[in-house]
Fold this sequence. Notes:
Blueprint: H1 2-8, E1 19-24, H2 27-45, E2 48-53, H3 56-69, E3 76-77, H4 83-86, H5 100-105, E4 116-128, H6 140-144, E5 153-156, H7 160-170, H8 183-193, E6 197-201, H9 204-212, E7 218-222, H10 223-231, E8 236-252, H11 259-269, H12 273-283, H13 308-313, H14 319-338
Parallel strand pairs: 1-2, 1-3, 5-6, 5-7
Antiparallel strand pairs: 3-8, 4-7, 4-8
Amino acid sequence: xxxxxxxxxxxxxxxxxxxxxxxxxxxxxxxxxxxxxxxxxxxxxxxxxxxxxxxxxxxxxxxxxxxxxxxxxxxxxxxxxxxxxxxxxxxxxxxxxxxxxxxxxxxxxxxxxxxxxxxxxxxxxxxxxxxxxxxxxxxxxxxxxxxxxxxxxxxxxxxxxxxxxxxxxxxxxxxxxxxxxxxxxxxxxxxxxxxxxxxxxxxxxxxxxxxxxxxxxxxxxxxxxxxxxxxxxxxxxxxxxxxxxxxxxxxxxxxxxxxxxxxxxxxxxxxxxxxxxxxxxxxxxxxxxxxxxxxxxxxxxxxxxxxxxxxxxxxxxxxxxxxxxxxxxxxxxxxxxxx
Length: 339
């Protein structure tokens, strides 16, 4: 711990309100967190927040190394829901009564067994409005219908659980009957659309570039990425119908010596709707604060993941099944791509 504090340029003695170390994405996301949340929390509590920029599997590798060494240097990290089944031993089981603002101000389910919502979005069908100025595609069956909606498609070459779900929805499986996912059926459906897929993108930036360049007229997109493109003025739109849930959480690491301060931050996180609006407008994903919707214009609300119609339009996901079957899905998906 001393080494981490030295790098951060602070020490426990300098922070009478305590210190909270948060591991999450860096860059503009860290900047937005600092402006809209960290600075206010520090002012209110006297605590110091140290942000450790880390992403993807690296955060779990480092967290597990800390746990093995018996020296947990992070207090909060930001996992995705399947992590609660794959890596749940890393996380503190939450006492939601210590986060009353999650119940008071959050969407249903904001406080879960191992985390509270940090960001809410969707995997959405996006389309070019110049290609489809009237009667645009509104479902994954439409995405697969190249006769009615001609033109090249783009799909993730990653995220097999989302692509498998989209394929099954296109094949007529009801949203509430998706799980357990029929991987073989999904692969057959993907073979149908494969000749029409111009790009199997492998990063968020690439997904945006394909649409900017007009390489496809439709794409599966993270909602935050497509909303950013729409804010740029690109001729694009989305449908939330049959969207797949995209969640990120705040979780307390098991073994942190600063558990009480971490709980205080989680409850604080849910407050101040204006800060949530400003934060969401910068990162293009919603938080769980429902009061934030009251600070939006009628034109903005339909684009927000947490608006009631859009939440209802999402298909439910069984994240335990996803965690337990991720290897099988990945293997089948890669075989389909290379066949």
